[in-house]
Amino acid sequence: xxxxxxxxxxxxxxxxxxxxxxxxxxxxxxxxxxxxxxxxxxxxxxxxxxxxxxxxxxxxxxxxxxxxxxxxxxxxxxxxxxxxxxxxxxxxxxxxxxxxxxxxxxxxxxxxxxxxxxxxxxxxxxxxxxxxxxxxxxxxxxxxxxxxxxxxxxxxxxxxxxxxxxxxxxxxxxxxxxxxxxxxxxxxxxxxxxxxxxxxxxxxxxxxxxxxxxxxxxxxxxxxxxxxxxxxxxxxxxxxxxxxxxxxxxxxxxxxxxxxxxxxxxxxxxxxxxxxxxxxxxxxxxxxxxxxxxxxxxxxxxxxxxxxxxxxxxxxxxxxxxxxxxxxxxxxxxxxxxxxxxxxxxxxxxxxxxxxxxxxxxxxxxxxxxxxxxxxxxxxxxxxxxxxxxxxxxxxxxxxxxxxxxxxxxxxxxxxxxxxxxxxxxxxxxxxxxxxxxxxxxxxxxxxxxxxxxxxxxxxxxxxxxxxxxxxxxxxxxxxxxxxxxxxxxxxxxxxxxxxxxxxxxxxxxxxxxxxxxxxxxxxxxxxxxxxxxxxxxxxxxxxxxxxxxxxxxxxxxxxxxxxxxxxxxxxxxxxxxxxxxxxxxxxxxxxxxxxxxxxxxx
Length: 603
Prior knowledge:
Blueprint: H1 10-25, H2 33-50, H3 112-115, H4 120-128, H5 141-154, E1 161-168, E2 181-185, H6 212-215, H7 219-225, H8 260-283, H9 289-316, H10 320-331, H11 335-342, H12 349-352, H13 370-375, E3 385-389, E4 396-401, H14 409-417, H15 419-428, H16 441-444, E5 446-447, E6 453-454, H17 456-466, H18 472-478, H19 494-503, H20 513-519, H21 530-545, H22 556-559, H23 561-569, H24 572-579, H25 584-587
Antiparallel strand pairs: 1-2, 3-4, 5-6
Helix pairs in contact: 1-2, 2-10, 2-21, 4-17, 4-19, 5-8, 5-9, 8-9, 8-24, 9-10, 9-23
């Protein structure tokens, strides 16, 4: 694919160099928020220059055919994400390759022995196991559900290969019931020429921020979830998602790795889609089912993107500089108040935000990257135990373990507890902190719906290795951070330092990316590491910059004036209260609905 080269101006390049030097010497988080936000802008320019690498141009044996009917794609999202970029219609579509944030020649795999060293099960047991739950006290559990809800929109590697699985030896005393442990390999890229290419993998999902987790990434799934009337999605009589009788799991765009948190997110935003349809129907009574669906999808997806940008991200990255930076991403330095009164006052994304600015790919075709996938491995957010309370009285209803709220059990709990009570309970519970020794125990021996057992901590380690993502120290180098020279630089916890040193046989360059990210001391208010944040700096804005429905086509003509007002006037709290007004007391006075809610007074 060809896209225009990225050529930042000389002043921008100079400022990027200055920002990089300041960051290395004292860090971006120390100065006042405005200065810090400008430094982040400089770092982002450097990352845009050096950390976007295309895999679509590597040798390929075949490319899936593009099929389009009519011209509706000009103003509506297609099921598979094709034709978002009209010049390169295959960009970002389901079935395209994952990209890279490091050069392709750095992703070649070592020999099998090196790839399996140290033993991923050993890493899981000695460094990840949760002995005592460590809470993320500034967040509620809906923040964890929200992250997985969005990750399902952006990426999917597809079904793993059953042939030639990874064989993981077990140390003496390991309680795993099968020896050796096996981990299925990631599905290979059927378009790749392995003799000519470094590892490449196919994204089964549409890579765009298009709410494909609700709508699916192909026509077949989209037809399954649509009601076929007034643009709406299917819900049952109780306003819940229909259940597949074969699996017991809900029918929606993506239903893998299902648990009650995901069920709540899918339910809320399915209801929100239908509410948007009803509002559009009142304004445009002659519109067809397809027209209502297309406009409602655009609005709903953009609302999810807005909530993620200006509410979820400042919630999990609770630093004043980030609050300013993320609001600048959406509204620019001019701010929300100016936007509401005057709209865009400049073509510049810095002044008036990314939505409505010019589309920009920064010299590389848009994709989700393998490094982005790797830094979003955040399973410690999940709890092992769940207490459900009554939203009206705050009285206990029931307690459950994670397996009892996962897969087909999620709906059984929701039927007993009710959606409002489940939302209220998740609003009160903290997720786990993203750190070492806080991986949910239930996920280290998780029984999948087909009966197989999985240690997700060991799998997370293995997936990152087998997909060619560099280990922690090399990753830092590629992201323009100083590499570590000593193990005591890894963490401010001396006990953890010695544990890591032992597991990695005193070889600091062998430390896995996930281990380093979980061990790393955090900037003030941060819920995940500064090294992981470097990928976020680059990719969070890129998901908006590259998408024409957030840039050149983010207009009243495409979204409708009604849709643009809906986006201006709504956030996560208003969405929740529209559908579940009994939550009002718990949300009263909260600045961010992803922070812990207020418990109601017991009757």
